[in-house]
Amino acid sequence: EVAADFMCDAIRNSYEMNCPLKLKNASVKVSWWNKELSKLRLKARRLFNRARNINTPETWERYRDSQRVYRKAIVKARRIGWRNFCTNIESAPEASRLCRILCKDNNQQWNCLKLPCGRFTESTKETLSHLMEVHFPGFQETLPVSVCRHRPRAAYKPRAWSLAAEVVYPQTVEWALGSFEPYKAPGPDGIQLILLQEGLKVMLGQLTKVFRASIALR
Fold first, then answer.
1. 85 near 32, Cβ under 8 Å?
2. Model confidence over 118-162: pLDDT tens digits?
3. Which residues, 6 or more positions from 195, have their beta carbon under 8 angstroms from its beta carbon?
4. Alpha-carbon torsion 45, 51, 54, 59, what sign?
5. Which of 100, 117, 128, 185 is the most buried (most CB within 10 A)?
6. Residues paired with 120 in a beta bridge
7. d(CA 152, CA 119)
8. Exposed, middle or buried: residue 74 (CB in 10 Å: 0-12, 13-18, 19+)?
9. What predicted TM-score, i.e. pTM, was given to this entire model?
């Protein structure tokens, strides 16, 4: 565990030192925008300036007509862009990501379990306690002092280094890391897979030792 923690810290520190965070420009180019919309927007602005300067009912009516045409064109372009995006989805990760976004329920919370008395849980602690009582009857949050003092020692397990060497070797580590998508969500350690894949030549030996130790010292 100490070696794994040291490696994680080294990877994170190297990444943060060589790739500092930068502020990105907030302006984002939308995919559904086209030249026709630019022309309609320019025309609407010109008619607005003309109506403001002349200030007659006819000029204002022309401006409102151009605005209606411009809004309808935006709605149509957005609809076509969304259809093209859905049609061009070819890989499973993109489709699953889109499905999760559309099915996401932001109102779902931990404190939504119904208790036997009829009311709902009001805190995360109460929810977890109810889950433990349902799935593990007789559960106690704190063990008695006598149990803690007289807890039996863990039995010694022989180190299976030979088995770990047969299961984990550099080629399997390289294959396993290469089988993942580079920008998948990181785990609790916060390390992106792309960092391991790009630095595999330097870290292959250390990663192999850590993975072997996870089997031999389990």
1. no
2. 888 888 788 888 888 887 776 666 655 554 455 555 554 556 788
3. 11, 15
4. positive
5. 128
6. 114
7. 41
8. middle
9. 0.43
Alpha helices, H only, the chain: 2-18, 35-54, 57-87, 92-103, 124-135, 145-149, 161-167, 170-178, 193-198, 200-216
Helices 2-18 and 200-216 pack at an angle, to 10 degrees, of: 160
Gap between the Cα atoms of 57 and 63, Å rounded: 10
Whether the CB-CB separation of 133 and 184 falls below 8 Å is answered with no
Q: Write out the two tokens for 70.
A: 């411009």
In the structure encoding, which two tokens stand for residue 28, read together? 């984002």
**Phi, psi at 114, each rounded to 5°:** -90, 125
Angle at 33 between CA 32 and CA 38, to 5 degrees: 160
